[in-house]
């Protein structure tokens, strides 16, 4: 099943499922806000049902939040209407097809996304181009490549055959950090975490 079909099919269920570890999620939200200001123009890639974008909205100027799944975007728009939040524009767009002006964002978020893309390196390079000098890229990435002998390596292909898991890349954290550096980013924060937790990294495009 392709990614769009998978996420459209699972959007309602995703919207209802609780955050896996709320304490870690809150920690990541707070850390992200250290890099946002009331003047920030933010892009979120793979925003899902919009929870994170709607959380940050009151603290920034504008957020464009995008996702491959129309169903995810519909749920996110409904949540924004119900919360009376008007500075988030939810748009259906894939990372691959997204077009925006170069150097137009102060911050770009990709949370639980990069390992789901066919070409994570192309995404990192695209993000670099879309950020203003000094802008930050906030990522949280499941690094399945570091869990070499875990049962996920058997379970995921079986679940994919049954349409119960999306296409994924078995990324290693070290490779992710190397590709961020290769694109030109400076690492400004990384959350120490067990291999079973997502790698939360804040990278910055140099100011000049
Ligand atoms: C695991 S969910 C994460 C959602 C949200 N960022 C969060 O942390 O809760 C992954 C999201 O990425 C979206 N997605 C997957 N592939 C994508 C692509 N190529 N372009 C844009 N969004 C994509 C899915 O539709 C889904 O909403």
Summarize the structure.
With 208 residues, the protein is α/β, with parallel strands linked by helices. The chain has helices at residues 3-16, 22-33, 51-56, 70-83, 120-130, 152-161, 173-183, and strands spanning 41-45, 62-67, 88-92, 105-111, 131-141, 186-190, 199-204. Helix content is 38%, strand content 22%.
* CATH superfamily membership: Vaccinia Virus protein VP39
Question: Quick one: overall form?
Answer: globular
**Number of extended strands:** 7
The residue ranges in which pLDDT falls below 50 over 5 or more consecutive positions are none
Number of domains: 1
Write a structural description.
- It contains seven helices and seven strands; from the N terminus they run ααβαβαββαβααββ.
- The chain is an alpha/beta fold.
- The chain is globular.
- The structure holds S-adenosylmethionine (SAM).
- S-adenosylmethionine (SAM) binds at residues 3, 7, 45-48, 67-69, 72, 94-96, 111-113, 116-117.
Task: Using brief descriptors, characterize the structure shown.
Rossmann fold, globular, binds S-adenosylmethionine, 7 strands, alpha/beta, 208 residues, 7 helices
Helices and strands in order, then pairings?
Elements: H1 3-16, H2 22-33, E1 41-45, H3 51-56, E2 62-67, H4 70-83, E3 88-92, E4 105-111, H5 120-130, E5 131-141, H6 152-161, H7 173-183, E6 186-190, E7 199-204
Parallel strand pairs: 1-2, 1-4, 2-3, 4-5
Antiparallel strand pairs: 5-7, 6-7
